[in-house]
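=== RUN LOG ===
request id: a7f3
mode: sequence -> structure
chains: 1
length: 514
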Amino acid sequence: EKLFLFFLKKLLTFYSWSTLTYARAGRRNLFKELCIFLERKSGVLMHISSLPGEYSIGSFGTEAKQFIDFLKSCGFTYWQVLPFCMIDECNSPYKSYSAFGGNPYFIDLKTLYHQGLLTDGEMSSQRQQTPFSCEYVRLYHNRVSVLTAASQRAENVQEIETFIENDSHLKAFCEFMTLKQANHQAPWYEWTNFEMDKDTLFAWKFIQFHFFTQWAEIKQYANSRGVKMIGDMPIYVSLDSADVWSNKELFLLDENNRPTSVAGVPPDYFAQDGQLWGNPIYNWDKMRETNFSWWRERMTHMFSLFDSVRIDHFRGIESYWAVPGSAKTAREGKWEKGPGMELVEAIRQIQGERSVIAEDLGDITQEVIDLVNNSGFPGMRVFQFAFMGGGDTPHLPHNYPNNCVAYTGTHDNNTLLGYLWELDPQTRRHMLKYCGYTDENWEKGYDAILRTMFASHAGLVVLPIQDLLGYGSDTRLNIPGKADGNWQYRVTEEQLNAIDKEKFKQLNELYKRT
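=== RESULT ===
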């Protein structure tokens, strides 16, 4: 074993030796532990909302299974999605009424129709006006009411009740949404009516039952086709959420249940004033007293849904940007120490065979780098950040370790083509030369970037769906700091069918990512 470890350490120049030590000390199967990171695979980033369909937004319907078939035909192994929780008033899934509850909009209406739960008239009322973007206004005004009508026809009432009773967090979420409706959608700290309407309560139980039942079928289908699912977990929760309402002691709140400190990030590439997220900061001392039980339950929930989980803003586990609750911008914040390896160890203890991706982007210090290395979780690399600094930047493909997930861009970035268009000519020429393309017609250099990513040492390469299509900035999913117009992008069935599947299959085969 000592000889094997010695040669393996030499071979994996970039691999975190602390992870090997951890695996050995824990008497784990070392080969199994390392194979998670040694395998060369690829995947596609596309949220459920962006799937094709007829009812205003993507869903857990046949289109999801067809997309899985598409991934398989291209040689991709992973499908990465964004958070499954309910969206906020800006349609963002990163601020929600629950870290555990599912987004009602993703429930496939056709499935309910075939189960006899929706009528022809109700289906007709839900048909979209455009296939190219999510119709959030229409969804907000009528989707839950249609699902409520379906709940009144349910015959498996006891099955639904038992499903919710067996999950305390889903039960709290259903009660929270019922009381929120009883209080005219006011935030929980302003409620005056605490009587729950039984029909409304059951409607939310019905919604959650069908959300998770439908997703389980999609997940099973993906795995049967050799496709693994990567989920996304926001590090924070919303103040107006079932999570804070039912666990007030776990957050930094004053006597009026208002946050004394809120989350955000300092000024950076995306925003000059930083980003003031407004999420309440965790009471980490209380979390420690319970051995991070709430976090354990949250991660157990995520591991039950996905094969791998990306923890958004992982650097906040090492230290986080804490902004006074009364501040107007994130500039007024300061760094505070997070739970660090204590929380990482708690996650690892319930991780099992699932893998975790650490989103280690933004203002990164040596302490954050050390935490990611010591956790053993693969970090992230983004091609669009590669040419913003010197040759030692970790985002240049020749610097990618095997133990990382490399992206052309994330949901917060421009599309690859949009990024190319907006680059200054000198940087663009240098970037394309780096990728082996020197022709004057830079627009034909797009595939050179894709090839560079596939050829890199990164264990996993992920491309947003827009970058498979070669689409421009008008299809960008999100612009951080911008309140409206985000999260709307959808792809059509015709567009997916137009993608050159053979090209990506050959790239996956050539660079051994199948």
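=== NOTES ===
The two ends are 30 Å apart (CA to CA).
Confidence is low (pLDDT under 50) at residues 8-36.
=== END ===
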